[in-house]
Amino acid sequence: MSEQLDERPAPPPAGEPAGAAIPSVGMVGAGQLARMTCPAAAGLAIGFRVLAAAADDSAAKVWPDVRLGDYRSLADLRGFAAGCDVVTFDHEHVPGPHLAALEEAGVVIRPGADALRYTQDKLAMRERLTALGVACPRYAPVRDLGDIERFAEQRGWPVVLKAVSGGYDGKGVWVCASPAEAAEVAGLDLRLLAEEYVSFDRELAALVARSPHRQGAAYPVVQTVQRDGICREVLAPAPGLAADRAEAAQSLALRIAAELDVTGLLAVELFDTPGGLLVNELAMRPHNCGHWTIEGAVTSQFEQHLRAVLDLPLGAPGPLAPQVVMANLLGGTDPDVYDRYIHVMAADPGVKVHLYGKAVRRGRKIGHVTVLGDDVAELRDRARRAASFLRWGTEDGD
Amino acid sequence: MSEQLDERPAPPPAGEPAGAAIPSVGMVGAGQLARMTCPAAAGLAIGFRVLAAAADDSAAKVWPDVRLGDYRSLADLRGFAAGCDVVTFDHEHVPGPHLAALEEAGVVIRPGADALRYTQDKLAMRERLTALGVACPRYAPVRDLGDIERFAEQRGWPVVLKAVSGGYDGKGVWVCASPAEAAEVAGLDLRLLAEEYVSFDRELAALVARSPHRQGAAYPVVQTVQRDGICREVLAPAPGLAADRAEAAQSLALRIAAELDVTGLLAVELFDTPGGLLVNELAMRPHNCGHWTIEGAVTSQFEQHLRAVLDLPLGAPGPLAPQVVMANLLGGTDPDVYDRYIHVMAADPGVKVHLYGKAVRRGRKIGHVTVLGDDVAELRDRARRAASFLRWGTEDGD
User: Fold this and answer.
1) Helix (H) or strand (E) holding A309
2) CB neighbour list of residue B185: distance below 8 Å, 6 or more residues apart
3) pTM, to two decimals
């Protein structure tokens, strides 16, 4: 266990009494995931620092220990890491060679560069999972339209094309119904992966944590509801999911976390098909599928991630209500979301509103709402009404 | 309603898009109550600013928008208030004349100076509550030992002496068994109040919120367990409390909030006696008796306070578990609390640890732990074990 914290004790933060060895976690990126990690860091009273691109990044608005810098600059990353016992991530876009260089220089990165590679390179992820015997959609690397057409001859149209790296929230994924559509994507000058179009019953996500001590913890398996490639709702737990399939999803995620030596959180996005579970995507950080845990689980995913990367014992992942529903809030056309609080809060005193402090742009994730209760249909209705009103000023929007 | 927010629109915080009228709350004081308000402010994405005495105050360590200043200086208060739509408080020690001067200058203070007076002057509080017909311990203002002895002739020894202003956490309260003990307190050159020594079954607290729109919300009534005048445990709800007495406590707190025109939270500390409920103390801010609401209630007291002072509709105050227990963590002799996380988290993955980032001094409130479940005896045991281990490094301490 070469990554033990006590090998690199940090100086106590200013204001702490002498003798208190409080570790410091640095998070690269200052989006909403970093923002929602701040309260967990405050509760544990650990050191926490974020690397932000700008002073008005989402997390930088709510946390004092912010360094400005570019995650694509090795110098900036080195400077940032110098004050941290552990470095972790709000996103997966730090260049792999930089991650390797930091580790070489003795920086403790959790998850490590070897694990993160599988979130940055979808072809490497597919190859590794396939080698592990994990069921995935059938895939092939494709260099040009000819490759895509050969893939389609075997798997049929539509063909799903994915950028091997750099995609998120539906960006970098194209469902192509014809060679003409595929030709457009093939012309984008990107490394591409072709995948079969999977006809699934629904999408699930299994969120687990794993620590350097190899402790694992699995949250209840959730259903995610996407529209236009963007997650719109999370139902926790996934309604009506058979216990054996839920357990299979948790075991699969824990196994992947172990095989890939993930430290921190691992979110495994899954297709639930009549033939079984197929892995769609991996993420190694707090994830949209786990926002419900802030109010809905004993330990929030954000605290869990900090505990895991600090190699502290993991927290209980159990739920606090029979059913939790989270709905993402996307930007509409009117930036004045606050003005609509009065209606939403008066209409439903039980809805929990989370805004990310981000400028409102149409379709951008700017917040989420969470409701806890018993009946999934009622909770979905409540969450959608609140999100719709905050977005559009009417409960009947999308 | 002269305090409507829209009469004093603030400029949008830096980085917000034009058109978004986001209000800003200023909290005077940067202790743990302000610290725990920060996540609620982040979730609502409102403006939030704290007035801290020092850069390493508890809240200043976890929030970026901090002004340094002295709450006893009117100039500092004026400067602080200039950037805020609403000013509220982490403690009740701002001098009354300063509060009046701020209101006179048009600053929106919630709660207002007229209400806060009853948390600053215990004699005024007793007189006002008595005028309202609210049952309190029998009391009298006392100027010297002679006054105290005359009070004791009627009410017997021991006599409880209280500083009329400035007390907290058992400070400023003396239980005197004899004239000799009372003489010591009488010699302190303080304005004093004598109260009968009430032989109560237990202590309760009723926490409510009230908004300028006169909306009220009442949390479940809790039992507070004190030792040496310091709250050590909170049991939510108060175990075995008859429904009619719980309702009486909630109604009483809502009535006091209305009569005193409180905006924000009001905590009413009560003695539960065979003859009924007696009011012990009032506080108009987030309160130790409500820390359990962070995990244990739909709406935390910190979010509720912000909603109330912003005149937003109040959140649901209902519980998320049949029983919640909070135990305060007091400082022990070893400052390295973090070093003991591993044991506490491994022993009980369900315990929620909150540290306040304060220097460890013996007997000082430096954090709390919360557990949710069904059985109060088991939960008390778990909470006490965790708090004891964090304090002393053993589960068998106090």
Assistant:
1) helix A301-309
2) B161, B174, B176, B192
3) 0.94
Most B CBs within 10 A among A4, A16, A379, hence the mutation to make, goes to A16
Q: Which of A288, A146, A305, A101 is nearest to A203 (CA)?
A: A288
The runs of H, that is alpha helices, within chain B are 32-44, 74-81, 96-104, 113-120, 122-131, 145-155, 179-186, 243-259, 293-296, 301-309, 341-347, 376-392
* Strand (E) or helix (H) holding A308: helix A301-309
DSSP B64: S
Listed by number, the residues of chain A in 356-375 with a beta carbon closer than 8 Å to a beta carbon of chain B are 356-357, 359-360, 367, 372
The answer to whether residue B242 neighbours chain A at the CB level (below 8 Å) is: no
Q: Using CA coordinates, name the residue in chain A closest to B321.
A: A320
For strand A24-28 and strand A47-52, is the pairing parallel, antiparallel, or unpaired?
A: parallel
Of chain A, the percentage scoring pLDDT greater than 70 comes to 94
Other CB atoms within 10 Å distance of the CB of residue A173: 19
β-strands A24-28, A86-89 pairing: parallel
Q: What is the pLDDT of residues A90-106, one digit of tens each?
A: 999 999 999 999 999 99
Which is nearest to B200 in space by CA: B268, B273, B269, B281?
Answer: B273
Q: Are A320 and A295 in contact (CB under 8 A)?
A: yes
* Chain A residues inside the 8 Å CB shell of B61: 13, 15, 42, 64
Interacting residues of A142 by C-beta distance below 8 A, sequence separation 6+: A148, A151, A161, A186, A192, A193, A194
Low-confidence spans in chain B with pLDDT less than 50 = 1-19
Angle between helices B32-44 and A32-44 (to 10 degrees): 160
Predicted confidence (pLDDT) per residue in A119-171, tens digit = 999 999 999 999 999 999 999 999 999 999 999 999 999 999 999 988 766 68
Tokens of A265: 């959180």
Rg from Cα positions in chain B: 21
Q: Which DSSP helix (H) or strand (E) runs through B327?
A: strand B323-330
Distance from C-alpha of B80 to C-alpha of B24, rounded to nearest angstrom: 12
Q: How confident is the model at residue A10 (pLDDT cuts 50, 70, 90)?
A: very low
Residues of A in contact with B313 (CB under 8 A): 342, 345-346, 349
Structure tokens at B118: 């009853």
Res A168: pLDDT = 66
pLDDT of A7 reads: 31
Q: Indicate if the alpha-carbon torsion angle A83, A87, A92, A97 is positive or negative.
A: positive
Task: Assess: ipTM above 0.85.
Answer: yes
Q: Does B326 touch chain A (CB under 8 A)?
A: no
Cα B103–Cα B107–Cα B109 angle in degrees, nearest 5 = 75
Contact A371, A339 (CB under 8 A): no
Which tokens belong to A242?
Answer: 């058979």
Alpha-carbon torsion, ordered A212, A216, A218, A224, to 10 deg: 30
Tell me if A60 sits within 8 A of A54, measured CB to CB: yes
